[in-house]
Amino acid sequence: MLDDLTEWGATNLSGGGRVVPREHLHVTLAFLGSRPAAEVDSIVRVLRDAVAAGPEPIVLEPTRWRETRSVGMLVLADHDGAATRLAGRCHAGLETLGVYRQEARPWLPHLTLLRFRERPRLEPPLPGTGTFVPSDAAAYLSRLHPTGARYEVLERVSLIAGG
Question: In the chain, how many domains are there?
Fold first, then answer.
């Protein structure tokens, strides 16, 4: 799946900005911004608890291309709503910790594939990936660099029952 998306991005998004490398592709459940290191264990516990509370398969599918002021993304359909429920449990737990405030707009499952300074107004065809099932969720540390953000996995939690 990730190889297919990387190839699709190289073919359909080149020239539109900086294509996100394969190893940085992810669906964000909650963006926390800068947090003190002392909070990491509690944040990871919320992720573990949110996954454990609803061990159901997540099935996602690209449905449309969308551009914001700085990124291009594939918006994903959340078949059966399992990813949305997981994000909601994460949001609630993180809000209880005091490290997150839920946005007024609903969570939007998406994959950011392109970053740009000036909106390219692309209209690429959708990739032929069909549905996919993510295997894990992770807490990431994001470090900003001139060539783009670099992500370090702090902890992974399997989304596969018994995984």
Answer: 1
pTM of the model: 0.92
Residue 115 belongs to a domain: yes
142 versus 107: the higher-pLDDT residue is: 107
Is residue 163 situated within a structural domain?
Answer: no
**pLDDT recorded at residue 163:** 56
Read off the tokens for 47: 């992720």
Quickly count: other Cβ atoms within 10 Å of residue 82's Cβ. 18
* Strands (E) located in the chain: 18-19, 59-67, 71-79, 110-115, 136-143, 150-158
- The reply to whether 152 falls in a domain is yes
Domain contains 70: yes
Cβ burial of 30 (10 Å; 0-12, 13-18, 19+) is buried
* Domain span including residue 90: 2-158
